[in-house]
Design brief:
Distance between the termini of chain A: 29 Å
CATH architecture of chain A: 3-Layer(aba) Sandwich
Strand content of chain A: 15-25%
Shape of chain A: globular
Oligomer: homodimer
Structural class of chain A: alpha/beta
Mean pLDDT of chain A: 96
Strand order of the largest sheet of chain A: 3-2-1-4-5-8-9-10
Order of helices and strands of chain A: EHEHEHEHEEEHEHEHEHE
CATH class of chain A: Alpha Beta
Chain lengths: 219, 219
């Protein structure tokens, strides 16, 4: 089976870098999409070598060349990104939302309100017809993702707008050593996943750890 | 150290029964508070024997006699319950909210909106001054709670309006074999805990299991 080509938009960020590198190590062809191709190419050239080839391109070029496009930009940047991508995401493409819609204030981390219910549903409302969507990788600590030799050793919650979208996202997630994907159903479950991330961040801060994440018992 | 007396209001319900019996087994003196004392007394008389004595009383009598009052009624019944309890909860009492503010519709389980942010904060706004509050036991499956010989084998998330309230609730939670309490901070974290419950229910239904619950890795 040939592995699909994956675009990781915002792939030079902390979360995106970890996802791109772990996919590259699992043999995926990865294109890091960035606003600044030159800077992204320079960053990628310094990354450790991987089995799958990792290159850099603009958002548009990366998305056009990929069967799966991972959105790893900050949530605040999503609207502008999607506006610019409307013609580059063709029907059938699987978009994977990994955004964590959280802000940090004096009372600590809090959830960004999304009129659609969640970041993932906010994105769904802005995707061209026929483009499929899954939410995944939201509860994986970026710190751990970038510690490439360490198995992630946790469960990861996958929601999506169809069983097929969830299965494809789960298959991608399985490339991460030590990860068990857990299909939690439709996009309406995304807000709960986002709250798990918020709670993990609160646990990190309170208990002075870096990698709080979840395992589901009884499954 | 003498263990505090614990009132479990709504203790004849599925969740409340499991909590009351596990506390009784750990040696706590438990008073099951119910609208219908006679029915509660009949139910309790058929429960398996425990080290700690378990008796039944009305809501008011149970709350007056206890240092810790667990609210294990359905969330829809909370407002009426708290209205009736205003004079029976004395300052210093620790109230523990275990409600799960979830409704079941055609699209499956969904979260009940609470203007205060969460069920726990909704309750906080209705407690007399000086009464302390923690949220706990929200993600413990009732099914598992009632399987008394089985260790619960999971983490449980504790929020509260002071570090002391959280420590006391954690101490109570530690009476459950196989449970690790995780202090997640102030009451503003309650909605995230409630979303964990919602997600666990979704996982139960989707994967045809009964006891989905959480462990925090990296802690």
């Amino acid at each position: 089976m040939t592995l699909p080509t994956v675009a990781v938009l915002g792939g030079t960020g902390h979360q995106g870098r970890g996802i791109a590198l772990r996919l590259g190590r699992a043999g995926y062809r990865v294109i890091v999409g960035s606003r600044d191709i030159g800077r992204a190419a320079a960053a990628v050239s310094e990354w450790p070598p991987t089995t799958g080839r990792i290159t850099a391109d603009g958002y548009d070029g990366a998305a056009r060349a990929a069967a799966i496009t991972v959105l790893a930009v900050p949530f605040e940047a999503i609207d502008a990104l999607l506006d610019g991508l409307r013609s580059s995401l063709s029907p059938g493409t699987l978009v994977i939302d990994v955004t964590v819609p959280i802000t940090f204030g004096s009372a600590g981390a809090s959830m960004v309100v999304a009129a659609e219910g969640s970041a993932t549903e906010h994105i769904k409302a802005r995707l061209p017809d026929g483009v499929r969507l899954a939410g995944a990788f939201k509860t994986l600590p970026a710190h751990l993702l970038n510690d490439l030799d360490r198995p992630v050793d946790c469960d990861e919650f996958i929601c999506g707008d169809s069983a097929e979208a969830r299965a494809e996202a789960s298959s991608l997630a399985s490339a991460f050593e030590g990860l068990r994907p857990v299909d939690v159903g439709p996009l309406s479950r995304a807000r709960s996943i986002e709250h798990l991330t918020l709670l993990a961040i609160a646990i990190n801060r309170k208990h002075k750890v870096h990698d709080a994440r979840y395992r589901v018992a009884g499954l």
